[in-house]
Specification:
Length: 190
Amino acid sequence: MANRRAPPDRSKRPLGAAKLDELALAYVARFATSRAKLMRYLARKVRESEWIDDNDAMTACEAIADRMERLHYLDDRQYAAMRAGAMTRRGLGVRRVKAQLYADGIAEQDSGEAIEAAEGVALAAAVGFARRRRFGPFAMRTSDDPKQRERQLAAFLRAGHSLAIARRILAVAPGDDAALAALDEEAALD
């Protein structure tokens, strides 16, 4: 007979403000996060548990997030800059950066500088993406297959790059070092 585990205990565990504060502290210690992401995490913990405190659970969540901001464990502007920089270094474009910051709950006033920085390195990020994926000037050989070109354009668009930048990079033939150097030089000037 197979060794079977007992089903997990699905009863809700008691949760109070003090334990919720401990969970929040452990979360911000482990992950770089935004206020909205922390609030979603705390709300999920409240839903999964039985709230035993006299105070309202969401009021406790707000108070904990406020405290984390006062202690400088949360800083949405700095988080946006860090997140945008990491994404552009991975070769992702401005549209993907904007979408991620929106999903992370970063307000426009906190994400503005990060988005401007991502726009400033858009060409360099796209060249990095092409290098990583071996598209355009980084391909092994020239391909005249229109379907492959469409797939490569689609990959650029999914990565958040503009169609103009994608077409420009894909127009450079493999081995055309002069055109690639011009692209790299222009990316460095941006």
